[in-house]
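Anyone up for a design puzzle?
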C-alpha cells in the first residue's frame, strides 16, 4: 500500500519542493536527495513518508521516520527537519484542534489519559488503515468536485485511527481546548513570544505553579519556556529577514530583543551564521533550486 501511496504522491506532485493541495490542510513534499536542515515551527500534523527517510530534531531529541512509520505532532513545536535518504516523497496532513475535538465528541474518546507528561511528538508504525485512508484522501485531488463532501469524512477517519492508535493519548491531551494547564501556556507563549517572559504571571494565568509549569512545559516541548520563546523569536526573525527588506537590528526589536548584539549572537548559535550571512546563503540556495 505504501508503494501505491508513493506513486500517487509522485503523480500529483511532479516538481521538487512543497505543494499545498486543493485540500487546504494537505501538503505534498518532494526532494531528489538529502536536504539542508530546515528550522520551523511545526504545527499539529500527521507526517508520512511515502519514499525515502527523514529525521526531525526537537531540542536534543531526534526522531527518524520512513515508509513504515508515521510522525505525529500534537502541539506547536520548534523543530529541525532533514531528509536523510532520497528520492523523498512525503505527505503532511495538518490536524487543527477543532478537527480532533469533532471526532472525540462523536466517539466518546475523551476519557482518562493514561500517559501524562509525554513529548508533543512521537513516531509509530504506519498501519494499513491509515495508509488506505491517506490514499483515498489523495485520490480526491483527481476529482476536485468531491473534495467538499468527502475530504472531511476521510479526515475524520484518519483522526479516528490516530486516536485509537499508540499515540491516542498524546493527541487527545494536546487537542483539548482547555484554557488552563500546560497546553494553554504553550499556546499563549506561541502567540505572544515577543512579550517579556514572566513565568509567575503565565503560571498563575493557567492555574499552575511556576515549578509545575517548568516541569510540564519541558516534558511536552523538550525545552524550557525561555528556550521555547527564544526559538520562536529567532525563527520569526529569520522569516522576516527572508521576506522583507529590513535590517537585523530592526527585526531584533520586532521579535522582542532589547539588544541587537545579543540577537546576533543567539541567531548565530541557532542557525550557524550571523543574520546577514545566513540570509544571503538561504537566498542563494533558493535560487539554485529554481
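Challenge accepted. My sequence:
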Amino acid at each position: 500500500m505504501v508503494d501505491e501511496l508513493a506513486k500517487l504522491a509522485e503523480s500529483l506532485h511532479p516538481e521538487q519542493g512543497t505543494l499545498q493541495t486543493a485540500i487546504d490542510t494537505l501538503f505534498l513534499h518532494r526532494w531528489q536527495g538529502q536536504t539542508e536542515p530546515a528550522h520551523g515551527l511545526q504545527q499539529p500534523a500527521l507526517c508520512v513518508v511515502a519514499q525515502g527517510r527523514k529525521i526531525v530534531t526537537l531540542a536534543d531529541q531526534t526522531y527518524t521516520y520512513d515508509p513504515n512509520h508515521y510522525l505525529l505532532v500534537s502541539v506547536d513545536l520548534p523543530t529541525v527537519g532533514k531528509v536523510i535518504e532520497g528520492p523523498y516523497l512525503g505527505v503532511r496532513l495538518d490536524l487543527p484542534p477543532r478537527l480532533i475535538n469533532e471526532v472525540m465528541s462523536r466517539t466518546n474518546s475523551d476519557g482518562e489519559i493514561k500517559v501524562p507528561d509525554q513529548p508533543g511528538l512521537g513516531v509509530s508504525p504506519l498501519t494499513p488503515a491509515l495508509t488506505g485512508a491517506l490514499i483515498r484522501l489523495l485520490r480526491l485531488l483527481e476529482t476536485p468536485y468531491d473534495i467538499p463532501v468527502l475530504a472531511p469524512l476521510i479526515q475524520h477517519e484518519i483522526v479516528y485511527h490516530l486516536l485509537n492508535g499508540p499515540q491516542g493519548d498524546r493527541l487527545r491531551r494536546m487537542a483539548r481546548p482547555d484554557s488552563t494547564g500546560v497546553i494553554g501556556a504553550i499556546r499563549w507563549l506561541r502567540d505572544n513570544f515577543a512579550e517579556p517572559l514572566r513565568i509567575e504571571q503565565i503560571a498563575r494565568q493557567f492555574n499552575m505553579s511556576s515549578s509545575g509549569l517548568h516541569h510540564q512545559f519541558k516534558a511536552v516541548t523538550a525545552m524550557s519556556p525561555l528556550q521555547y520563546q527564544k526559538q520562536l523569536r529567532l525563527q520569526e526573525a529569520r522569516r522576516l529577514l527572508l521576506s522583507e527588506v529590513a535590517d537585523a537590528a530592526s527585526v531584533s526589536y520586532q521579535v522582542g530583543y532589547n539588544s541587537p548584539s545579543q540577537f546576533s549572537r543567539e541567531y548565530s548559535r541557532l542557525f550557524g551564521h550571523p543574520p546577514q550571512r545566513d540570509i544571503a546563503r538561504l537566498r542563494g540556495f533558493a535560487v539554485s533550486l529554481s
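A detail worth pointing out: The first helix runs from residue 2 to 12.
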